[in-house]
Amino acid sequence: MGKTLYQKVWAAHTVSTLKDGRTQLFIGTHLIHEVTSPQAFGMIRDLELPVKFPHRTFATVDHIVPTKNQDAPTDSMASKMMEALRQNADDFGITYFDLSSGMQGIVHVVGPEQGITQPGTTIACGDSHTATHGAFGAIAFGIGTTQVRDALATQTIAMESSKVRRINVNGDLRPGVYAKDVILHIIRLLGAKGGIGYAYEYGGSTFDNFSMEERMTVCNMSIEGGARCGYVNPDQKTFAFLKGKPHAPKDEEWEAAVERWQSFASDPDAHYDDVISIEAAKIEPTVTWGVSPDQGIGINESIPDPAHAKSEAETASFKEALDYMQLPGGTPIKGVKIDVAFIGSCTNGRLRDFREAAKYLKGRKVAEGVTALAVPGSQITAVQCEQEGLDKIFEDAGFEWRKAGCSMCLAMNPDKLVGDQLCASSSNRNFKGRQGSSIGRTILMSPVMVCAAAVTGVVADAREVFEVDPDSNFAAA
Amino acid sequence: MALEKISSVRGTAVHVPGNDLDTDRIIPARYLKCITFDDLAGTHFYDVRFDTEGNPTGHSLDDPRFADSSIMLSGANFGCGSSREHAPQAIYRSGFRAIIAESFAEIFFGNSTTLGMPCVCATRDDIEALAAAIEAAPDTEVTINLESLTASYVDHSFAVTISASARQALTSGRWDPIQELLDNGEAISKLGEALPYV
Ligand code: SF4
């Protein structure tokens, strides 16, 4: 019987079986950032251990970086953390994409952009959205800080292998439906804990046709579905994306690398522990209504009514979510007033996201009373957007065009919700308090849907706002 | 580096009700601004325990009857969300030594195991019965036994589950794997050399 990519990569990176039965897994690529690494450096200093493969760890700064004035945080702890990363990278000989490098950005945007993210590799980072890198056919997952210590000191971690669930999506997405909707739909279907114990392998013609950016958007949110990692088998698109990137194999090494990368793709007769199939045409622009990413609905559906929940427990959780969101059950989600619009994050902060959003935003104005933020995922993304004049389109519409960072995706830099503001957000988590106010509210959606909400001031169907013919033959962005 | 063999945890318990209690709930992002974990005690569930003005919300974690609890009870998918080890660190440093819940998110589970804080699963009914018992008698002593895979209190006992490897790691005093990983230094170097991209 054939093997999945997951099994092949796992086998190629197994150092030993530990006494407790876990695998000692070699981490080919280790990514670090300022929030979850300083404690780990502290631990290896305490243990007087060196970094075993310093050239396989790459650092950047993203979570706490202010997006207005990047290198001048007003918060002394933020400066301290940025300085600690700089110092640690320096002391241990680690490549660091610092603010002055022109290559800084959200760690999950930087890895692919630099060609560090490659097929058939293992990638770990003290960040749960490391799953993003799976778009390239890597086994990529988030780890805790003690494991960051292990990766630094030994280039390995102790880990149990997962089962593999194949998720097929076939056919063309309808106009105005995006990769973000695909993953919100999958999570809605399988639940926020549906993926516990699984790696998600995404495939089918929809994924074959997806750009690398779209694949990244889906893989990124695997963790929101409970899966520790998600991946797409590498193909010509993957190779084309990587060709010429700074850390990608060069010249005579390239052919051999592509051949090796191809060999990691799942075999046609691979065994999966579970298989599910979804028709692309049935996916609607999807938005969340609650406080967990699996609390999602199609834009034309009503917010669930707790009275119609399937069980007592579900009634309670619906009630709690609606109470927090200050939304009435049983009423349409369309028309819910928003205060803030945010486009950015490691889910949807790449060039194609801004391009697609700008296409519709051009000539429009952000509704009165709405604060709108567009935050490129990396300095390189920012430059690319600016070269195409996208920044002007956003600014003319009334968005603030900021510098690269995690920004309003989480509450570690000055970009935060205030009070119970409601944010239409292209990020990945709608948890209570996620965006910086303990009573702030988040509705997740695609960047184009964020634009529709921004210009109308309410949660809206972008296809109506921007007059996209739902039956037109519109190629995926 | 000899580690304690953790075959059981005994103590009083507190119920933190709810499903999908994510890591942003367990520790709000503003508390991630630190370069060591040393000062995280008391930050656990901060925004659940205090309102926007800083007034206590009357959460069970602040109920003096449960002040000395070392076992936390909760619902399904506990610890979902981010990989921040700050979450289990905050819980551990606030005095907890084990968690009983219906299920755990994977990264949280792994992080907790590495700290020597067992996370065991039980059925909703068993957890609720125990929650009711501690509500009635907060000083009820609970024992989680990782050998027999049971949790017991007064004259009740129920089954708990935990992954075989975590159980093995905890009971044999190998929950922090660093030494074993280091011991294979040569094999690591060899594999690294064999991987073309490394
Ligand atoms: S953009 Fe958001 S989810 Fe992504 S790494 Fe930054 S904080 Fe985490």
General description of the model:
The complex is a heterodimer of chains A (477) and B (198). Chain A is built from 17 helices and 19 strands. By secondary structure, chain A is an alpha/beta fold. Chain A folds into 2 domains: 5-274, Aconitase, domain 3 (2-Layer Sandwich), CATH 3.30.499; 285-465, Aconitase, domain 3. In chain A, helix 2 (38-46) packs across helix 5 (145-154) and helix 6 (179-190) packs parallel to helix 8. The longest helix of chain A is centred in the N-terminal third of the chain and has 17 residues, at 76-92. In chain B, helix 4 (106-114) links the parallel strand 4 and strand 5 (119-121). Helix content of chain B is 31%, strand content 15%. The mean pLDDT of chain B is 96. The longest helix of chain B has 13 residues, at 124-136. Chain B is built from 8 helices and 8 strands. The chains are: A alpha/beta (477), B alpha/beta (198). Bound molecules: iron/sulfur cluster.
Features:
heterodimer, A: 477 residues, alpha/beta, Aconitase, domain 3, 2 domains, 5-stranded parallel sheet, 33% helix, globular, B: 198 residues, Aconitase, domain 4, 4-stranded parallel sheet, 8 strands, binds iron/sulfur cluster
Radius of gyration of chain B: 18 Å
What small molecules accompany the polymer chains?
iron/sulfur cluster
- Spans of at least 5 consecutive residues with low confidence of chain A: 473-477
Envelope shape of chain B: globular
Q: CATH H-level name of chain B... which superfamily?
A: Aconitase, domain 4
Read across the widest sheet of chain B, the strand sequence of neighbours is 1-6-7-8
Count all strands of chain B and give the number: 8
Distance between the termini of chain A: 37 Å
Which fold name fills CATH's third level, the topology of chain B?
Aconitase, domain 4
CATH class of the largest domain in chain A: Alpha Beta
CATH class of chain B: Alpha Beta
Number of strands of chain A: 19
Biggest sheet of chain A, open or closed, and with what strands and sense? Answer: 5 strands, parallel
Arithmetic mean pLDDT of chain A: 96
CATH architecture of the largest domain in chain A: 2-Layer Sandwich
Straight-line N-to-C gap of chain B: 30 Å
